[in-house]
Protein: CPBP family intramembrane metalloprotease
Amino acid sequence: MGFIDAVIRPQYLTKSFVKIILFSLMPILYSRYNKELNLNSLFKVKSKKEIIIALISGAAVFSFILGAYLILGGFFDFSNVVSSLSANVGIDNSNFIFVAIYISFINSLLEEFFFRGFAFIKLKEVASRKFAYIFSSLAFALYHVAMMIGWFDISLFILTLSGLFVGGIIFNYFNEKYKNIYVSWLIHMFANFAINIVGFMLFNMI
Structure:
């Protein structure tokens, strides 16, 4: 996906289709080969408490991201974000709302299934806990590098990359605690809600 984002740069619909294949079908096909890999357990919620915790945590993350942008956004240059999205993947005012819906609900689930379910919970069963934490979080952060090329100056780029790594660690904590991806998915969803609101602002839609 990094190669596709940075080099091929297809339109967003094509890229999303490829991502669905790589992030969902590939792990599922591998689980057919490795019978000991049970992916069904990733979707089991044990209590309503988990959902409540996820919603509260998600609301906190939403407030933090949006608040950080409103307070600190003026200190950074976001002018390249809109032009890069339009030029590289064909996202503009006419389709951003549909992209935002996809990012919030479907894309967040794909990333949680792959980076937290497959590359953390299941990886932790065959590798050390420390390795699974670092590998999953680092892969999650580096995956976003290709799509963010040209968006920010180096200072904001490093800050964003560090935030993604720390976010991956936090998501992994919830996955480890509850042994499913639902909690981290809901939190990820709220994070994307905040990011999409920032996107609406940058596209001058609100």
Remarks:
- The longest helix spans residues 96-121.
- The chain has a mean pLDDT of 90.
